[in-house]
Design brief:
homotrimer, 349 residues, transmembrane (chains A, B, C), Na+/H+ antiporter like fold, Sbt_1 (chains A, B, C), transmembrane helix (chains A, B, C), globular, mainly alpha, membrane (chains A, B, C), 15 helices, 76% helix
Chain lengths: 349, 349, 349
C-alpha cells in the first residue's frame, strides 16, 4: 500500500513540473476552444532543435564511450521494439471489428519511439539530478526502426497472403525498387525511408556531428540552454494536438481506445524488462532503465504516421494517428513519473 | 518649467533604450521602403512567448500574493477600461462624419490593452530597476475584456435602437447563442470569444501554469532571458506595421487622426488616476501605477481588431486598425517615459 | 613544405569546429536524400537575427571608433569589390560559351558579400580568441554595393552597346526613374534597391541602432548569446542548399564550375591584399585582414541573386545561383581556415 501511495505522490508532484504542466495546459486550451496556435514552421523548427540536442549529446557521449556498453542496450532496444509489434499483432490486429492492416499499422506506430516523450523524460531526470548514460539518444533509432520495419513487413506479408487467396493485387510502398522485390528489398526500402525522415535525420545528424566534430561550444551555448524552454512549447502543441485527435477515435473501433490507454503501460514494462537485463549484463544505470521504459511506452508522433502512410496506404490513418497522438502519447508522457518511481523502488536511482 | 525639462530629458534618453530604438528603427525601415520583414509565423510565436512570460510571472506572483491587494487594482483596471470606452462614445462616436458604429469600435480597441506595449513598459522599468507588483500581468484581462464588452454592447444597442426606428434588421455577432439572446447573452458571447483569442489565451495559460504548477525552472532558463530580445523583434514589427497602417487613416475622417494622437495621453491619465486610488487604498507601488497608466494608454493591436471584426462586422476596420496600429500604439509606447516621469514626480518610484 | 603542412593541419582541425561541421553535415544530409528541412520563415528570421547582431556590434564599435581608421578600410573594401567584378568581366564574361550578360551577373554576385560567410568567420575568430576591429560589419555594405553596382552597370552598358548595333531595345531594371535615365540614374536605382534588400536593411538597421541608440543590454542578453547557435542552423541550411544547387550547374557552361571553384581563392587574395594595405596605413588588425579576405572570397547568397534577377532579368539565374550557392559559398566557407593560417604566417594574429 505504501508502495502505491509513494508512487501516487511522486506522480502528483510531477504534474506540477513544467513538462507535464504545459502538456496538461495544452489539452485544457484545446478543450476550452482557444484559438491559440504554434505556427507549423516554428513547431517543425522546435522539434528539429530538440532532436539535434538529443543527438549531439548522444554523439558527444559515444565519442568517449566503451562500445561494448552501447551494443547490449542497443540490441535490447531493438528486441523491445520487435516484441511490442508482435504483441500488437497478436492482440489488436486480431480484434473483432479491427482490420488486420489497421491493427498492424497501429502496433508499428506504438512500437516506434516518440522523440518528444524521450526528451520530456530526459528533462524530468535532469530536474531531479538523476544521471543516465549520455549515449541514450543513440538507442532511439534501434527501437524505432526495428518496430516500423517489423510492422510493415508483417502487414505486407499478411496482405500478400490474403491477396493470393482472393486473387487481388498489392502495391508495394517505398516505390521503385524494381527487381529487388521480396521481403529483403521491402525491409531495405522501409529502413532507408525511415532514416531519411526529418526526425531520424536530425537525430543522426546530431550524433554524427557529436562523434566526428567538436560541437561542445555551440552545444553548451545554444542547444543545451534552450532545451527546456523549447520542450515546454512542444508539450503545449502535443497537448492541443492530443485533444484535437481524440475525436478521430470515435470513427474507429473501441478496441483502439482500450489499446491506446493500456498499451503504453504494458510496453513500458517490456522496456523496463529490457533495461533490467542490460542493468544485469553491463551495469546499465537506473536512469537509463527509466528512459528505455519511456521509449518503449511512447508511440511515434512525428516520424511514425508519415512512414505508415507511405508504406501502408491502405491502412486507415484515423486509427493509428488517433490512438497514438490522441491517447498513446499523453498516456506515455503522463506515465513517466511511474517509471521513475518503479525503478527507484527496484534497482534504485 | 524645471518639471517639464526633466520629463523631456527622461523621454529623450528613453528613445535610445532598445525598446523604443527598435520601434523607431522599424518605422524608419518602413518609411525608407525596406523589404525586410519578420515572417508571420515567427511573429506569432514571438508574441506567444512574450505573453506566456508575462502570464507566468504574474501567476508565480499571484501564488504568494495577498488576494486583497490583487482585487482592488483589478476592479480599478476594469473600471478604467469602461471609462475609456464611455469617453470615446461621448466624443469620437458623436463626431460629425464619424459613423457611430465605427466610433464605438475604435473606442473599444483603444480601451482594450496592448500586451506588447505592456511588455515594453515592463522591460523599461526592469532596465531602471524600478519594482512593481509581480501580478500586474493578471490585471490585463480585466481592463481588456471590460472595454471590449462595453464597446460592443453599446454599439449593438445603439444599432438596435436605430434599426427599430428605421425598420431595418441587425445581425448579432458572436453567433449561435440562439434563445439566450439579449444583452446578457451577447455579453457572455463576447467574453467567451475574447478569452479564446490567442493573446488572452496565452496570457491566461501562463497565469494558470504559474499559479497551479511549478514552472520556475523553465521560466528562469527560457522565458525570462529571451524576453528582452524577442521584445526588440516585436517592436521592430510594430514600428513597420504602424508606418504601413498610417496610410489607411487617409481613407477615414480626420477625427481619427486627432483621436489616435491624443486619446493615449488622456487614457493614460485615467489609468494614472486609477493607479493613484489603488496606491492610496492598498499601497499599490509606483511602478504598478506606471504600468496601469500604460495599459490604459495602450490600444489593442493583437486581440482587439479580430474581436471587433467578428462582433461588429458592419464597422469599417480601416478606422479602428488605422487609428490604433498606425497612431495609438506608437504614441502609447513613446509615452511610456512620460508616465515614468510623472509618477516619479508625484508619488515617487 | 612545413608552411603547407601547418595550413593543412589548421584546416583539418577547423572542419571539426561547429561552423564547418554543420555545413558539411547539411551537404551530407542533402546527398543522402534526407527530408529534413528548416522552414523558410524560420530561416529568414535566423538570417535577420544574425545580421542584426553583426550590425549592432559594428554600430556599437563605430560609436567609439576613430573615424579615420574606419574610412581607409571602407574605401579599400569598395575597391576590392570593384576589382573582383572587373576581373570577372575580363575572364568569365569573355569565355567561349558564356553569355556576357550571364558572366557579368555571376561576377557581380561573387563580388558581393555573403553575410553568413562573414558571420561564420567571425565565430571562428571568436572561438580562437583572435581579436578584430568591432566595426568590421560596417565594411560589408561598401564591398557589396560597390560590386553589385559595378556589375550591373557594365552589363547594362555592354547590352546597350550591342543593342545599338543590332537595333534592338533594352529594358532598364529598377524601374520608374523616368527622366533621370543614363548610367547615373541607373546606378542610383541599383544603390537604393540594394540598400532596401532584407540583408542590407537588417545590417544597416543594426548599425544605426548601435550608433544612435544604447542597445548594449539587449545585445548582450539576446543577440550575442544566440549567435553561434543560430549560425549552426544557418550553416545546415547552406550546406543542404549548396548540394541541391550543384545540379543546376549541369545546365550551364563548364566555365562556371571552374570559376566557382577557383574564384573564391583568387578573390580572397585580393581582399587579403587590400587588408595588408590597410594594415600598413592604419594598423588594421590581423583578424581584420582575415575578415576582409573572407568577405572578398565570399559570394552573395542572400541579397545578390534577387538583386540580379530584378536588375538583369535577361541573365540566366541558373548560372549565378548555381555557381555561387552551389560552389562559391561552400568553397569560401571552407577556405576560412586558409585565410587564418595565411595571416598568421605573414603579419601575425
Amino acid at each position: 500500500m505504501d508502495f502505491f501511495t509513494d508512487i501516487a505522490t511522486t506522480i502528483l508532484s510531477q504534474m506540477q513540473k513544467p513538462t507535464l504542466a504545459f502538456l496538461l495546459g495544452g489539452m485544457m486550451l484545446a478543450a476550452l476552444g482557444s484559438r491559440l496556435e504554434v505556427p507549423q514552421p516554428v513547431y517543425k523548427f522546435v522539434v528539429m532543435v530538440l532532436l539535434l540536442k538529443v543527438g549531439l549529446s548522444a554523439g558527444i557521449a559515444i565519442r568517449s564511450a566503451d562500445l561494448a556498453t552501447l551494443v547490449v542496450p542497443a540490441l535490447l532496444a531493438a528486441a523491445a521494439g520487435v516484441a511490442i509489434v508482435l504483441l500488437g499483432g497478436a492482440t489488436l490486429a486480431r480484434w473483432r471489428g479491427v482490420a488486420p492492416m489497421d491493427g498492424m499499422a497501429t502496433a508499428g506506430v506504438f512500437g516506434a519511439v516518440s522523440a518528444s516523450t524521450l526528451a520530456a523524460a530526459m528533462a524530468m531526470l535532469d530536474a531531479e539530478n538523476i544521471s543516465y548514460e549520455g549515449f541514450i539518444g543513440a538507442l532511439y533509432p534501434f527501437m524505432d526502426v526495428a518496430a516500423l520495419v517489423t510492422a510493415i513487413l508483417l502487414a505486407r506479408l499478411s496482405a500478400a497472403r490474403s491477396a493470393t487467396t482472393s486473387g487481388g493485387t498489392v502495391t508495394v510502398g517505398g516505390g521503385g525498387s524494381g527487381g529487388m522485390s521480396g521481403a529483403g528489398g521491402m525491409a531495405r526500402d522501409i529502413l532507408v525511408d525511415t532514416l531519411r525522415s526529418p526526425a531520424i535525420s536530425a537525430l543522426l545528424l546530431g550524433i554524427a556531428i557529436g562523434v566526428l566534430g567538436r560541437p561542445e561550444s555551440v552545444y553548451q551555448s545554444f542547444y543545451e540552454p534552450l532545451f527546456r524552454g523549447l520542450l515546454s512549447i512542444l508539450m503545449l502543441v502535443m497537448g492541443m494536438e492530443a485533444w484535437a485527435r481524440l475525436s478521430e477515435l470515435r470513427k474507429v473501433a473501441h478496441a483502439y481506445v482500450l489499446y491506446g490507454l493500456t498499451a503504453p503501460l504494458i510496453h513500458g514494462l517490456i522496456g523496463f524488462g529490457a533495461g533490467l537485463i542490460a542493468h544485469q549484463l553491463t551495469g546499465f544505470s537506473g536512469g537509463g532503465v527509466v528512459l528505455l521504459a519511456v521509449m518503449a511506452a511512447s508511440s511515434s508522433d512525428i516520424s511514425g504516421p508519415p512512414t505508415m502512410r507511405a508504406a501502408l496506404p491502405e491502412a486507415n490513418s484515423a486509427s493509428y494517428v488517433g490512438a497514438s497522438t490522441g491517447l498513446g502519447t499523453p498516456v506515455a508522457i503522463l506515465s513517466i513519473p511511474l517509471w521513475i518511481a518503479l525503478v527507484e523502488r527496484t534497482i534504485g536511482l
